[in-house]
Amino acid sequence: MADQGPPEGPRGPDAGRSEHPGSGLAVCYRHPERETGIRCTRCERPICPDCMVDASVGYHCPECVRAAAAAARGSRPRTLAGGTVQADPRLVTKILLALNLIVFIGVLGAGTPLVRDLAMLGYARTGAWDTSTIGVASGEWYRLLTSAFLHQQFWHIGFNMLALWFLGPNLEAALGRARFLTLYLLSALAGSTLSYLLAAPNQLSLGASGAIFGLFGAMAVLLRRLRYDMRPILVLLVINLVITFMPGLNIAWQAHLGGLIAGAVIAWAMVHAPRERRALVQYGTCAAVGLVLLVACVLRTLHLLG
């Protein structure tokens, strides 16, 4: 059941705005003498430090807190994107971490054969005298996703899992479990798809970096939506992009770029969707992204086999 909105009153970016002469700041809707740059993340009323109440993401005004408490008696509270608030906002993040670690342990035990069977590979012949082929173009579409859980080096999985633990819980709390998982998987698929489109047919790639860059893009969108300081996440993103394109590191930049674009697009739809059509906009955007990826893969396959 959808949550009820806050009580009737001023709403929107200019709700409660009554600027002092010469000042660009709004004033608290309950204390007109106090300027503030903070707004309620539900109704966007300006609120001063005495009025703002800590929420899982951002701050709420007293009216929204009371409305949420009243709504909780009939339905569960909702996240910023409309997901159900859970007692553990890190559960999906923990499961994704565990899956990556389990597959990594499997790679350490099985070695090269497991990497060859699960890594992202567009199209390749199995040998000089063997005409059989392997890769996505040969029907092994599962590689688009399995490669995103595959790592060979300790430093590779270490950096990716550290980023997942840094970004995942906040995004999971803001979006809800189902939306966060959808964001992660579609970002991973987008990274693999762009690699499939642009990388050489015989190029083998692996790692969760496409999904991680999708989380970077989503976090930037979320911080902008909440009007928080974006400089820390932008600095991290720029550093990672510089490393991505540094010559000699042999990094699959296509996966990073594809994940970043998909993550930003999906997150924008999730946090900016109007409440009355929220699910339609959110899952419609996810379906559209998935359809674009599918069409791109089919066209690339036809090109390689043509």
UniProtKB/TrEMBL annotation:
It comes from the Bacteria. Gene3D superfamilies: Rhomboid-like (1.20.1540.10). Its main location: membrane. It is found in: Membrane. Residues 139-271 form the Peptidase S54 rhomboid domain. PANTHER family: PRESENILIN-ASSOCIATED RHOMBOID-LIKE PROTEIN, MITOCHONDRIAL, RHOMBOID PROTEASE. The lineage of its organism: Bacteria, Bacillati, Actinomycetota, Actinomycetes, Kitasatosporales. It is a multi-pass membrane protein. This is Rhomboid family intramembrane serine protease. GO terms for biological process: proteolysis. Belongs to the peptidase S54 family. Residues 1-23 are annotated as: Disordered. Coiled coil: none annotated.
